[in-house]
Records
---
Amino acid sequence: MRTSMTIVPTLRSAAILCTVLFGSASFAQASPVPLGFSIAGAAPTLGAGYGQETDRVEADKASLLDVRFANTFSAQDNPLSEVGQSWTFELGTVDFRELNTGSGNAHKITSNETDGLGVSWLLSFTEPWVTDINLTAHITANAGPLGDAPVDYGVYWTDTPMNFGTGGQFRIRLNDISFADSHLGAQTQTATVTLLELPEAAPNNDLALAIPEPASLALVGVALAGLTVARRRKR
């Protein structure tokens, strides 16, 4: 009788402990599984207003702005597991090399050279889901002699937030570039991807991207061990 009286409380205690642990174990505090962010390709698209004049022309006839874009992108594959984490990679270079135009070979941007100067980058993601993201810049080109304004030519970008999965969000940010004169050397165009929100489920509808903490698993193991011992004593 003494043995059975000892076993019953033990079983009850173990059962209660399991109920509490399994019922209160929260996956919200779980360690997140790193999310893969992969970009297979990136390419710029330029407006028709860029180019090099074949011959030196008078100022009123110049129509192409000499800005040279080079694509130096290489495939990217980076995991992000915490909100606020980011990585930066190179897309290419931008080089403002406007030719001498006008009388006296003065450096100058003509009014005809301020049209058709669009710039965009297309990023081809393969993770966390397959999609193409097109980013478009705001361009400034100030007509007049080079160096007479704080910025003669500038490429400016707006942050782009992207939603994915269930509740997930990341941001793409390209760095702004500006030139106060020509022939100053190329500047590097970069992109930064920042994780803003972890998804509850992956884009392919997998389960929540989290695993129980080791401490929680250890407590569950203790409860199960208690049940095993109690059963052995009962036998």
Note: The CA atoms of residues 44 and 121 lie 4 Å apart.
---
Amino acid sequence: MARLAPEAGAAQRTGPALPRPLRLLAALVLLLYPLAAGALLLTSDGWAVNRLNVRIWYAVTGALGLREQVTPEMFAALANVALFVPFFAALAVLVPTWWWVAAGAGLSIAVELYQGEIGTREQDLVDILANTAGAALGVGLGLLVRRFAGSRARNRRTERPADASARQPGLSAAGSAPSAPTTPGAPRAETGHGPGGGPDDHD
């Protein structure tokens, strides 16, 4: 059985190489996003968080004309879903695995336990479910982005050799040298054999 080269084996284990801008963007999200999300989740001023949620609900639902259909409680649940999407999408882009969903559920449980301990925030099972759903959406989105970016990178790598061979002078489409041109009316080269297939006699 043929053995794979070390480079090919590594490529199969790690998947297609991602574009550098995508990797940098995912790393930037992982560095900066926890600061904003952590300030919102870990603050002890629960009333400030509620007031912020109501203000955002009022502005968004008013602009969309959905103020009567979407209550502040529903909007808060949707916000808890959206809160976990960017972070876990970035994680899935860099390290593709669905285990990040379990990590998101564990993180949400830890946050709710902390909020219950400080006494000024309320524990809510709906928040845990919403955060876990957001983690699942984020992981799915990250895997889709990674797959799309990887397929584009593979297509570019396969197109480059074909373009390079097409630009090489002196090669035909089949990759062989072109035959010598013939001039109309020119005598044919002697083969050294007579009509009967034997050698010609030149006495």
Note: Residues 16-162 form one domain.
---
Amino acid sequence: MNVVNLLKNPNVQQNALELLFPIIGFVFFDWSFLVIILFYLTDQLGVEIAYLMRLKFVEKIFLPIKKWLFPIAIVSSVTFFVVEFLWIERLFLTEKFDCSTNYFWLEMQQFLKQEFLFFLPVLVYMNYFKDKMTFYKSKLPYENSPERMLAFQITIYLARLTCVGLVVLLWYIFKWSDLAFVFIIPVLKLIFDAWLMPWGKINLFKGI
């Protein structure tokens, strides 16, 4: 695969942008480690919206529709997202982080006002565009059931909470600079995505 074809790959495009956004934010807009974490939470929100869209699409294929499944998916999505956010908040408000409650929520408010409303639609579109090229046009929607998708997504939630905990724990223990985490977080995310894609398609989507 040459460079041009590689750059046309939706997964490569999305990962490249997710790598660039925090670096640009850190260099040009003075993003802190907390803001970078909030950016990736926004990215995760976009992923959740795209996942629910995929689930709804697959649900229509496997008729009759189970009325309980989609509400459970929404509840589990919201629950894990809130738990993830509260976990990060609690860790940032520990004494070792030297982060006051006022500072945390002030950064949060500024991010919501300045970056969130811009990034959320961009990230939702990026995830939808990737799915449009790699999921909706493939055989995957016809090779897995909504139940398997939900089970797989819950597995992702647990793995994601572990990764988030690992990132914050590294900073908690070593107190590395924000610049180090500008690169550490995207690398961990790329590793997670690289593990996630083939594992999901083989083990749960195809039921092997």
Note: The CA atoms of residues 46 and 116 lie 11 Å apart.
